[in-house]
């Protein structure tokens, strides 16, 4: 947490004495009377075991907890902020070789000033990261050969599971392999390890505007599971069970060349081995949301610029531009105050020596968004199914809180959330148009604990796949 301590020390130097008083905020950010009545005072904690579900990472097990300090009703920002301070920690592993460990801190109005401080340090590993290529070529239907045989019928447009099954058959080996057969089961898979530290400082001004500065430091390690042609090894990471196309019996088989390796050897990608990626994020936002963890009304409009340079110790040079809008609206506030329509639209453009793994990373004032596909964007498509220099996507949710009750002095609210997602990628901003978007839809349940902790259960479906997710927090 050295980075977090430095961030706190740096924040002290920014505070002028005359700023350590309440500032004028937009009335749209004030909590409703009902929410204000239920808001707790002082310290409290929320913690729960994590039982996550993700089609790529598998089933996850661990724990996540938060320690909150809400202050009291005389605090200058009590009616506007979700909490004064929040300390968080989580640790979990999954059945498909993913693990995540994180410590976080957040103070929306640090020491009763106009400044907000957020910090985190985390370590993550995902042995089942997905790569399908870069740019508009990934928008084509997935194709495969019947039973993975070179002479098999070429099939296109089938469900994702059918393709996975076909790739699990063994086939004749590539030239140079010491084995007669190989498997394509890991064709779209690679391992990604990352250690990341980040903090951000932003200031509220003119009632609802915020500027933000956020340094971020990461060290990434990437490897594939291709069997090394030309030599023999007993490392089981290079073998997977593969079925015989005639009998259907499975046996341990060396992996063939992955899509990632193929594109690297063709010179199509950067960052094949990982490396250091150090960002400086700068942003400007207009934020009128009434309650950030679970808004009823208001909007967030933001634009930000991210720079990565070798001068900061990075192994690459590139830039990113990101913009998004989040909108929350109660269509019938007097008759049906528990119904909220939530929507989001976002776009990112990246240029320069961008590592393939960084195309998927979109930085927002609210937190990172990873890839087009998966829980945070297109919930019916696989995680990071689409990445490219230009990414655009949107989401629409109807959030209906249909039940609220107290349990052991804890406030619990249940919310039903049907949703619709859309998005696509382009090779550059000159290609942007209104055609070729991918769509997914589904429904979910939110369990809202003491107003600020949201447990998510979503089921999404697309023409390629259907997926179930369990996580913490709204996706936007």
Automatic annotation (TrEMBL):
GO terms for molecular function: protein transmembrane transporter activity. Residues 97-460 form the Bacterial surface antigen (D15) domain. PANTHER family: OUTER MEMBRANE TRANSPORTER CDIB, SLR1661 PROTEIN. The lineage of its organism: Bacteria, Pseudomonadati, Spirochaetota, Spirochaetia, Leptospirales. The keyword Ligase does not apply. Residues 161-173 have a biased composition (Basic and acidic residues). Residues 1-16 form the signal peptide. It is found in: Membrane. Keywords: Membrane, Signal. This is Uncharacterized protein. Residues 23-83 form the DUF5982 domain. GO terms for cellular component: outer membrane; type V protein secretion system complex. Its main location: membrane. The keyword Iron does not apply. GO terms for biological process: protein secretion by the type V secretion system. Residues 150-184 are annotated as: Disordered.
């Amino acid at each position: 947490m050295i980075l977090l301590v430095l961030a706190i020390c740096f924040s002290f130097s920014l505070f002028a004495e005359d700023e350590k008083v309440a500032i004028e905020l937009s009335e749209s950010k004030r909590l409703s009377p009902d929410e204000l009545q239920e808001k707790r005072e002082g310290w409290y904690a929320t913690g729960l075991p994590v039982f996550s579900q993700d089609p790529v990472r598998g089933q996850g097990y661990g724990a996540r907890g938060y320690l909150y300090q809400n202050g009291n009703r005389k605090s200058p920002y009590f009616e506007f902020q979700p909490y004064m301070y929040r300390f968080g920690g989580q640790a979990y592993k999954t059945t498909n070789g993913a693990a995540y460990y994180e410590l976080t801190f957040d103070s929306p109005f640090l020491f009763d000033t106009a400044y907000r401080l957020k910090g985190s340090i985390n370590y993550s590993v995902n042995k089942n990261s997905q790569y399908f290529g870069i740019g508009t070529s990934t928008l084509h239907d997935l194709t495969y050969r019947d039973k993975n045989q070179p002479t098999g019928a070429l099939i296109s447009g089938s469900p994702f599971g059918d393709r996975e099954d076909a790739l699990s058959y063994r086939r004749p080996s590539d030239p140079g392999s010491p084995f007669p057969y190989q498997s394509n089961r890991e064709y779209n898979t690679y391992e990604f390890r990352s250690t990341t530290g980040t903090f951000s400082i932003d200031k509220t001004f003119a009632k609802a505007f915020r500027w933000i500065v956020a340094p971020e430091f990461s060290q990434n390690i990437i490897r594939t599971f291709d069997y090394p042609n030309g030599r023999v090894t007993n490392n089981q990471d290079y073998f997977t069970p593969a079925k015989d196309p005639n009998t259907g019996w499975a046996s341990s088989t060396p992996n063939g060349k992955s899509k990632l390796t193929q594109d690297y050897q063709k010179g199509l990608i950067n960052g094949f081995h990982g490396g250091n990626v150090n960002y400086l994020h700068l942003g400007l936002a207009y934020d009128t949301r009434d309650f950030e963890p679970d808004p009823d009304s208001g909007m967030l409009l933001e634009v930000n610029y991210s720079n990565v340079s070798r001068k900061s110790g990075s192994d690459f040079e590139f830039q990113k531009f990101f913009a998004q809008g989040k909108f929350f609206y109660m269509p019938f506030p007097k008759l049906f105050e528990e119904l909220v329509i939530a929507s989001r639209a976002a776009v990112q453009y990246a240029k320069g020596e961008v590592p393939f793994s960084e195309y998927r990373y979109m930085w927002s004032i609210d937190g990172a968004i990873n890839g087009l596909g998966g829980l945070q964007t297109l919930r019916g498509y696989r995680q990071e199914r689409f990445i490219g220099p230009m990414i655009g996507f949107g989401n629409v949710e109807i959030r209906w809180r249909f039940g609220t009750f107290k349990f052991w002095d804890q406030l619990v609210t249940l919310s039903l959330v049907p949703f619709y997602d859309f998005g696509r990628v382009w090779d550059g901003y000159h290609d942007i148009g209104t055609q070729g978007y991918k769509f997914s839809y589904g429904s979910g349940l939110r369990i809202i604990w003491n107003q600020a902790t949201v447990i998510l259960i979503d089921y999404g479906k697309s023409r390629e796949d259907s997926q179930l997710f369990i996580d913490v927090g709204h996706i936007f």
